[in-house]
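Narrative progress, year one. The postdoctoral researcher (J.K.) led the effort to move from monomer predictions toward full complexes, under supervision of the PI. The following entry was the first complex the group processed end to end, covering 617 residues in total.
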Amino acid sequence: MAADGLTYTIVDTANMSTAEIYGKVLCDLAEKHKEIVGLSADLAKSTKMGQFAATFPDRFFNAGIAEQNMFGMAAGLAKAGLTPFVSTFAVFASLRAAEQVRTDICYQKLNVKIIATHAGTSFGQAGTTHHCTEDLAVMRSFANMVVIAPADGIETANAVMAAYEHKGPVYIRINRGFDPFLYEKSDYGFQIGKAVQLKDGTDITIIACGAAAYNAYHAAGILEKEDKLSVRVINMHTIKPIDEEAILKAVMETRRIVTFEDHNIVGGLGSAVAEVIVKSGKGCAFETVGIPDQYAIIGLPEDLQNYYGFDQNKIIEKVRQIMGKDFEQTEDWEDEV
Amino acid sequence: MPLTQQEIQQFTAKACQLRKDAIDTVYWAGGGHIGGSLSFTEIMILLYYKYARIDPKNPGWDDRDRIVVSKGHAGVGYAPILADKGYFPKELLKEFNHTGSILGMHLDGNKVPGVDVSTGSLGHGLPITVGLGIGARLQGKSWLTYCVLGDGECDEGSVWEAAMAAAHYKVTNIITIVDRNRMMIDGPTEEVMRLEPFADKWKAFGWIVKEVDGHDFNQLADAIEYTQKEDKAPVVIIAHTIKGKCVDFMEDKYEWHYGGLDSEKVELAKACIEKHYCEL
Ligand SMILES: Cc1ncc(C[n+]2csc(CCOP(=O)(O)OP(=O)(O)O)c2C)c(N)n1
């Protein structure tokens, strides 16, 4: 049972975009918790904060197209004892207003929830000014910040509720438009900082977040059937604090790890996982897949997922490639520590 | 009257054509920022067809005037102009937003010939314009920089930081035009975040203000020529326009900031545009 006894299923949320599910959950929370306030910067409609604005007009503040001021105002509202939910596009939340988020919100440990939409390459046609392939890296480097990249709408509902329960700043990045449903119901035990193992396996572990998690899960099914591979799939929805235990277990039990994310390969999920592995002193075959440190091309999100190697087919290809590599399985790893 | 009768006729025909091209481009793109692409048409025509010294055959010409379309979301209105000027084949408009195309919603200066600055994140254009202006002056160059801003965009603090710097450094080799269509995404500017008294704000920042009807070529041309000559302080031209201009069902409707058009709506929109110009 999720916080507040609210549960969501694929039935309540059918035909809703991920952001619309966020809008609904926020309204449900705000109904119970009068100290919740909402802010947007001329993107209330696009981020679906608009649902909250329509339901609670007195508790919504449109900052106009002025993101830095919006995050500053959110800090002030939090200091005054309210719980601000702030929504704009991920690129503006994490880059335009980065210093306000760091210095006004994180440094002062303020209770501000940032739900940033149009993350990654999910607004692919809009080009580089609107792609956001740096936010996980930026937000992860802010002390006190919790960073979540939900896999679908149901997980977004969970993340938003968990963000409310958590005291302190939280950054949730969600996609533009519709995400295919990975989960049917919200009561699968979502917990900040606790990865969800979608499938067990012993040959290789895929660690993914956001849109890549759904693709990885389905890729693993095909690899199992066609290649007789035993593929573990971990949905690493929380990038910070990261679930070290799940990663180290995968190192020891599968000895191959590959990460997939809709983000620059510098600084995001792959880097976070790598830090854990390196620190442990245990080695394993390891690769990271994402945007290869460049500004992404223009195109439909599904085409970009293919182009950058994290749609279902490309994940299958990558796993086959890694499994085909000569990799010492017999070595005694305990010696290497 | 700075423009000849013949020029007015030519530009009017151009405005009709470019507005229809913008509609087609929204269709090909599967959606686009059409409202603001129809409000800045006359402004853009005067820059691209009359005042800016540019050479589409040589987009990187060192001595060209620079044009900074700070309201970079108006790509479906901007791209047809560049195509019409010959920066790239018009056929490419049919691939607008398609995967791998050079043309995305916000035009990328690395990919699209004729685009001086990659914009799309609002509030970036005026600071860059001020830098370009100071840069030209420092090197004794005579080229000018034109900057087109949205009015909602003027909510951004960076616009006012640049305004302060332009006055401080007396940057007068820039021509700044605000497309004052009074609409943004979430509603009218005065309801979402009040801008008025808008002209007074610019004046307080040390600028000279010219207010014109942004759909009237002669008024706009007058103001641009005045600005080119003025060397005591930077000038801002507040061009009063209508978002969605010439398409009845879009005019003055913030809901049409961004939208898609099916083939039926495309025909309807183009018919509105033609009707508007027939009645002139
Ligand atoms: C920094 C930034 N914040 C938000 C946006 C999203 N956005 C795109 S267009 C727009 C409204 C622009 O309104 P205005 O400047 O008045 O343009 P126009 O009405 O002329 O289209 C917004 C908020 C953006 N592109 N950049």
